[in-house]
Amino acid sequence: KETEKARERYDKATMKLHNLHNQYVLAVKSAQLHQEHYHETALPLLLDSLQKMQEEMVNAL
């Protein structure tokens, strides 16, 4: 009976650990995708927009 309780506690702790690990992996992947989007899409668009605005200001002078 005591071994069954120990086994149940072990299984519960293992499941909790697996769930926390999965959440961590998903969070890391999400951060990687966010950073990739920022570097490949958002930042170039922002810099292009800034350059266009500066060129328009120069042409207006």
Automatic annotation (TrEMBL):
Keyword field contains Coiled coil: yes
UniProt key word Coiled coil: yes
Domain F-BAR, first and last residues per copy: 1-61
The entry's keywords: Coiled coil
PROSITE patterns: F_BAR
Domain of life: Eukaryota
SUPFAM superfamilies given in the database record: BAR/IMD domain-like
Protein name as catalogued: F-BAR domain-containing protein
Species per Swiss-Prot/TrEMBL record: Cirrhinus mrigala (Mrigala)
